[in-house]
Amino acid sequence: MALCLFRQMQGTVVLPNEFTFATLINACSILVNLEIGRRLHALVEVSGLQSNLVACSSLVDMYGKCNHVVEARLIFDSMCTRNVVSWTSMITTYSQNAQGHTALQLFKEFNHSGLDRPNHFMLSSAINTCASLGSLSDGKITHGVVIRLGQDASDVIASALVDMYAKCGCVNYSAKVFRRISIPSVIPYTSMIVGAAKYGLGTLSLQLFQEMVVRSIKPNDVTFVGVLHACSHSGLVDKGLELLNSMNGKYGVIPDAKHYTCVADMLGRVGRIEEAYELAKSVQVEGDARAMLWGTILSASRLYGRVDIALEASNRILESNPEVDGAYVTLVNAYALAGDWENAHNLRSEMKHTGVYKEPGSSWIEVKEPT
Q1: Where are the PPR repeats (predicted)?
Q2: How far is Cα 142 from Cα 101, in angstroms, rounded to an integer?
């Protein structure tokens, strides 16, 4: 709608200003439309706004959202003046494009510059960067900045801290921050549930889930991934099946491939291979999600010696993605275990012909000469 109105505006005598461009560029950020974003960038320069703080901050954000980090940085460096918004956009750009260390370095530069105080958007971005890096030391330093600025009461920042500590393996720290949130939403609850499940605290995950239900906080799809993962790693199979069956009817969350894969893994871990197999056959998933689901079945069936199901799972994976090397190798091994040497030989020959085959039993590492 905004872009359509702008086209109409271009046919009038009304000239766009920096706020017009910022609105349009933000629309491109939301749509991740690099082509139109670049056209608007050109119009910004034609309009003489190439050094304007508002327009340039929007351009930094747009290029970042479109994964064009170099262009975002060029605009950031060309700005005569910068504010907390432009710095936050650049930090977030690095963070969202797998350049977390650079994002944290820029965050430190901003803090040392004394230009302004970081707002909760910048602090949240820095904390999320620490979480994605799994850097507890940087996370604690950033938490210290939060406390010094008196921002630790913010629910947004507290939720980010809960997630960061959980992802860094400090579930106790995560719980301490979580318990200080006056009215926690689904986001910190989910971070706690997923973090506890990841580190083998299945009982805690289920307790937190039950607490959510009692407090009438509606779980989302990620919450269920966490709690099903907890059931899988704690051997709580019946509870996991109960949760899967109640997701849609009771909580309005439709199960998807992630949930079915968790449950298949849960069943496979306790040797209930037939049930896991029937579950995988009963759901409609495609692409990488399908390969992941059947990969779970493949691992469990191999572990428990179900060659028949391993063969089926390998074929299903190859149907989803013919370039999965491991599925070919496993299928050859499954044929061999079943005594079907002809198919094993034929498939290995096909692998060699198509270039999938890898010579087994050798690897290279670089070893420095002793000094």
Answers
A1: 83-117, 185-219
A2: 13
CB 350 within 8 A of CB 332: no
CA distance 59 to 79: 11
Under DSSP, the state recorded for 370 is: P
Distance, CA of 12 to CA of 15 (rounded, Å): 8
SS3 11: coil
DSSP structure string for 87-146: HHHHHHHHHHTT-HHHHHHHHHHHHHHTS----HHHHHHHHHHHHHHT-HHHHHHHHHHH
**Ramachandran sector of residue 355 (left: φ over 0; alpha: ψ -120 to 50; beta: rest):** left
100-159 pLDDT per residue, tens: 999 999 999 999 888 789 999 999 999 999 999 999 999 999 999 999 999 887 888 999
Query: Is 193:175 a contact under the CB 8 Å cutoff?
Result: no
Nearest Cα to 239, choosing from 217, 274, 267?
Answer: 267
Model confidence at 362, pLDDT cuts 50, 70, 90, reads very low
Tokens of 158: 């507290």
199 in Cβ contact with 169 (< 8 Å): yes
DSSP string computed for 198-225? HTT-HHHHHHHHHHHHHTTPPP-HHHHH
Give helix 136-148 / helix 100-113 axis angle, nearest 10°: 30
How far apart CA 292 and CA 274 sit, in angstroms, is 18
pTM (two decimals): 0.78
CB 163 within 8 A of CB 131: yes
Q: Cα separation of 269 and 263, whole Å?
A: 10
Cα 156 from Cα 220, distance rounded (Å)? 18
Separation between Cα atoms, residue 320 and residue 289, nearest integer Å: 9
Tracing tokens 């406390």 back to the chain, one arrives at 147
How far apart are the C-alpha atoms of 147 and 168, rounded to whole Å? 19
**Cβ contact 89:64 at 8 Å:** yes
Identity of the amino acid at 340: D
